[in-house]
Amino acid sequence: MKRVGYIRVSTLDQNSERQLDGVELDEVFEDKCSGKDTNRPNLKALLNFVRKGDEVHTHDISRMARNLEDLINLVKLLNSKGVSIKFHKENMTFTGEENPIQELMLGVLGAVYQFERSMLLERQREGINKAKQAGKYKGRPQQINREKVLEVLASGISIRKTAAHLGISVSTVQRIKVS
């Protein structure tokens, strides 16, 4: 039996140290991406890694999924493999045994986290609209035209001058040149 941790933060600059701090684990899988769906590399690796009798530990329900359907499907998938899952913040463990109260709590808390994410996205959209109205929002930076970069480089202009000419970073030009 292995004690396996799953940690998720939404962005690269977020710190994951508080999650599962002090929990003794044999293996840890960590994703630094949104929990909006289950398309996460280390979540997939965890699902492939765990075996019957293993325990998956995660800080709270929202770290596993921000979507009720995904949450329920992940818990069912793990349980069907004979793997239990423990959510530390909520102090809930799912083993696959029927427990109507726990199933209700999973559904309610999962719905709360899904609602929270919806509200966050709504506030984000409102903020972007206000910033646009004030002329402060420029949107996502324009995509780099790889062909143009290669064309300028092929004409004999240096990497540094190509970057200055196209208004992009030297490292971006170098990355395009070697790819």
From TrEMBL:
InterPro entries found in the cross-reference section: Recombinase_CS (IPR006118), Resolv_N (IPR006119), Resolvase-like_N_sf (IPR036162), Resolvase_HTH_dom (IPR006120), SSR_resolvase (IPR050639)
Coiled coil segments of this chain: none
Domain of life from the UniProt record: Bacteria
Entry's Gene Ontology molecular function annotations: DNA binding; DNA strand exchange activity
Pfam families: HTH_7 (PF02796), Resolvase (PF00239)
GO biological process: DNA integration
Residues covered by the Resolvase/invertase-type recombinase catalytic domain: 2-135
Keywords from the named record: DNA integration, DNA recombination, DNA-binding
Protein name listed in UniProt: DNA-invertase hin
Lineage: Bacteria, Pseudomonadati, Pseudomonadota, Gammaproteobacteria, Thiotrichales
Gene3D superfamilies, sorted: Resolvase, N-terminal catalytic domain (3.40.50.1390)
Family: Belongs to the site-specific recombinase resolvase family.
Catalytic machinery residues: 10
PROSITE patterns tied to this protein: RECOMBINASES_1, RECOMBINASES_3
